[in-house]
Design brief:
By secondary structure, this protein is an alpha/beta fold. It contains 4 helices and 5 strands; from the N terminus they run E-E-E-H-E-H-E-H-H.
């Protein structure tokens, strides 16, 4: 991939997403509040000056956003939440701070990516989880 022009850290929730966008050329960091829809987030990120590299934490929203970003031509790193470096005094959590921390760690190469499963693999994983929950009930 060509040298990255724009880095994006996304704090993703079902109802909304906060994006921290860092333009490498100008050094400008800006924030944008978006809906929680993967297609709208991917449209916003895909419309930034490229090449673009984005990241967000793996979580209950699944991997639809990673697939949408890939379809928009955006390099996306889905990272493991438990492996994100955190300072001892980093106790205040806000969506904006989380997004900004993710974009800085992405630029520094400090994030551990997880494998984005195919739709079939993700469906099978969800089925196995449901079976375990039903068996435990």
């Amino acid at each position: 991939m060509a040298q990255v022009r724009t880095f994006v850290g996304l704090d993703v929730h079902v109802g909304q997403t906060v994006a921290a966008v860092l333009d490498v050329g100008s050094g400008e960091l800006r924030r944008q509040r978006l809906s929680g829809k993967a297609s709208e987030v991917a449209g916003f990120v895909g419309g930034l000056e490229g090449p673009v590299r984005a990241t967000y934490e793996a979580g209950p929203t699944g991997f639809a956003l990673a697939r949408e970003l890939a379809a928009a031509g955006v390099d996306c790193v889905v990272c493991a939440p438990g492996l994100i470096p955190r300072g001892a005094s980093d106790r205040i959590k806000t969506d904006q701070r989380d997004a900004e921390r993710l974009v800085r760690l992405l630029m520094a190469g400090e994030l551990r990516p997880v494998t984005v499963p195919s739709l079939e693999e993700e469906g099978l994983r969800d089925l196995v989880r449901r079976e375990r929950i039903c068996a435990a009930s």
